[in-house]
């Protein structure tokens, strides 16, 4: 059998699809390697969310041409461009769209197989965890119904489709009790909308009630929650459940009502501010992450100042800000009052400089506290890890001093120093 490797581009949701493809192929007898230079077959799981991501996908494909017995291109770029990819790269052996990743084995065994179609498997499939096994992403749904005016996701991934709850619980149980995973990161385009299509109501709180008894010694982290769909019931469960991280990723995108309306974002500035206040009231130590877009069409100085002041007043623990990207096939592409690229970059810089100060101020407040820290790896100076207040890959880390611990262990750490985004701690 051939040796297969994969390159996964884009978000963790794409990574899960890559892990499923590798897991299915391993079950069929293929040897799997994470070193692409050792492989006979390469899968490139592409991202197409923004022009920058599409450019990266094209570059990776071009670099891989002629190096493998078979080259398989999968994911969002395939879903977006279809057979046009073969005009640009005629030596690609297989194209697999986002709805067909579970058919990887049937595709890989044929010539010039093109599997492009919508759909999302309700069931659990074998996975090869590409991250270290102590942390894993679990995708609970795919697609999106929110239809923000700047976003391609509904065109790439289709309507919102929730997975079967029993399958999710079974997958988490296997990750925790067989693989040894200590951190479960629940992901989807909007996890708070889970169940609306299959149960006709928001079922994330109910699912958490069934996940938390699996083990007392795990972290369950909620990623990609829409502020319009975060309910009081969800906040209450987070507050009461000791193994749900006091961490919430809640992308608000903007705070000015006219911009929110133009973005087709459900909810208002008043609702967003009230929600943040309620969350902090019920979970005082909550770490909040958000994402913002600057330079959206119609964002003038007044709208930007309101956003800037909101960031300063709210004090998010973690924040990502992105200059608006004008994407074909989105409603916002043709909006009037487009913002100059230089202005977008300047506003991006201003928000990030402000967030540095906000983050440093919040980090310093952790000095002297003792936190449970998940050991992630070894570096020249010692070890590195994260607490429940930092998500993998996107947030800061904690540099650890003291006796060496196994990767994947959760240990008590006293915080002794702080930087703008990272902490330093001594293992107790």
Describe this structure in words.
With 428 residues, the chain is α/β, with parallel strands linked by helices. The protein has three domains: 113 residues, Methylthiotransferase, N-terminal domain (Rossmann fold, 3-Layer(aba) Sandwich), CATH 3.40.50.12160; 230 residues, Alpha-Beta Horseshoe (pyruvate-formate lyase- activating enzyme), CATH 3.80.30.20; 58 residues, OB fold (Dihydrolipoamide Acetyltransferase, E2P). Helix content is 33%, strand content 23%. The chain contains 13 helices and 19 strands. The chain has a six-stranded parallel β-sheet, with helices on both faces. Helix 1 links the parallel strand 1 and strand 2. The longest helix is centred in the last third of the chain and has 24 residues.
Overall body shape = globular
Kindly provide the radius of gyration, computed on alpha-carbon positions and rounded to a whole number of angstroms.
Answer: 22 Å
| Portion of residues within helices | 25-40%
Q: Helix tally? A: 13
Structural class: alpha/beta
CATH superfamily of the largest domain: tm_1862 like domain
Give the strand tally.
19
Name the beta content range: 15-25%
CATH topology of the largest domain: pyruvate-formate lyase- activating enzyme
How many strands, which pairing sense, and closed or not: the largest β-sheet? 6 strands, parallel
- CATH architectural label of the largest domain: Alpha-Beta Horseshoe
Unreliable segments of 5+ consecutive residues: none
CATH class of the largest domain: Alpha Beta
Going across the biggest sheet, name each strand in turn: 2-1-3-4-5-6
